[in-house]
Write a structure and sequence with these properties.
This protein is of the alpha/beta class and 256 residues long. It has two domains: 4-182 and 223-246, Rossmann fold; 184-221, no CATH class. The chain has helices at residues 13-24, 38-49, 63-77, 100-128, 149-169, 187-200, 204-212, 224-235, and strands spanning 4-7, 28-32, 53-56, 82-85, 131-136, 174-181, 246-249. Strands 3-2-1-4-5-6-7 form a seven-stranded parallel sheet, sandwiched between helices. Helix 4 (100-128) links the parallel strand 4 (82-85) and strand 5. The mean pLDDT is 97. Bound molecules: nicotinamide-adenine-dinucleotide. Nicotinamide-adenine-dinucleotide binds at residues 9, 11-15, 33-35, 59-61, 86-89, 109-110, 136, 138, 181, 183-184, 186-189.
Length: 256
């Protein structure tokens, strides 16, 4: 029987890379994201890898929509083995100018959505006596940077939640872990490069070198494939004892 994975934000960036790796492993996948071509992305991957897929554009700002996304996954595939809470947004501003609605949306999408999705998946995972919850946090779940008050708060919160779910899931073979990437070149970061170039009056290359990769000892963006490989490892049957932990894939940033 093919296992089922639901990956939020899997029609772009890191989530899409994770989905491609799970597809290679033969998982059935519930794709999710706001990209207009989401269904087409899902269909292409299904064809290439001979897997079953679904697609949802549920808005993660709405708890009922998240519950429905999880229910739809279980109804479609009859199971839910792996939940990857990946979707996220970013906004950068000094605190005194930080718009309240931007703060609230970052907390809702980057942190609260992981709670609602995990809560909705819990009963099914308990019944299966198998569950793997993988939260895509960030090096900003372990370290702070100025002007990212909402993002750093949400990503630290996700790591706290990861530990609690690991404790609660232990007796049901439900594990929960966080992956904490440094900078990864995705649409989310490409937007930041442009914004920071404007803010610092620098070229985009200078932003990458002097701002983004400044704290990464390895002066490279983190490859999406490395994050996807880590997710595959955490999802394995024999990863039961790997739980409650955060894995930094950050080029040595948090070693400092
Ligand atoms: P991305 O912008 O490429 O993808 C984000 C996904 O989230 C998209 O599919 C988008 O549609 C979805 N999404 C956003 N708001 C949504 C909403 N309201 N409802 C439903 N879906 C919504 O971003 P990415 O860089 O691939 O980021 C993925 C995750 O990785 C995020 O949690 C991000 O914080 C984290 N992360 C990224 C980096 C990086 O450098 N790119 C580093 C560390 C952590």
């Amino acid at each position: 029987m093919n296992k089922t994975v639901l990956i939020t934000g899997s029609t772009s960036g890191i989530g899409l890379g994770i989905a491609q790796q799970f597809a290679k492993e033969g998982y059935n996948i519930m794709f999710h994201g706001l990209e207009a071509n989401g269904q087409a992305i899902a269909n292409d991957i299904a064809k290439t890898h001979h897997i079953k897929v679904g697609f949802s554009n549920a808005n993660l700002l709405q708890p009922e929509a998240i519950e429905h996304l999880v229910t739809k996954t279980i109804d479609t595939f009859g199971s839910l083995h792996v939940l990857v809470n990946n979707a996220g947004i970013q906004f950068v501003s000094p605190i005194e100018d930080f718009p309240n609605h931007k703060y609230e949306n970052i907390i809702a999408i980057n942190m609260n959505a992981a709670f609602y999705a995990s809560k909705a998946a819990w009963k099914q995972m308990k019944t299966q006596n198998f569950g793997r919850i993988i939260n895509v946090s960030s090096v900003h779940g372990l370290r702070a940077s100025e002007f990212k008050s909402a993002y750093v708060t949400a990503k630290h919160g996700v790591i706290g939640m990861t530990k609690v779910l690991a404790l609660e899931g232990a007796e049901f073979n439900i594990t929960c872990n966080a992956i904490c990437p440094g900078y990864v070149k995705t649409p989310l970061v490409e937007g930041q490069i442009k914004d920071q170039a404007k803010a610092h009056s620098m070229t985009e290359d200078e932003v990458v070198e002097k701002v983004m990769l400044k704290k990464q000892a390895v002066k490279q963006f983190v490859p999406i494939e490395a994050i996807a490989d880590m997710a595959i490892l955490l999802a394995k049957d024999n990863s039961t004892t790997i739980t409650g932990t955060s894995f930094a894939l950050d080029g040595g940033w948090s070693a400092q």
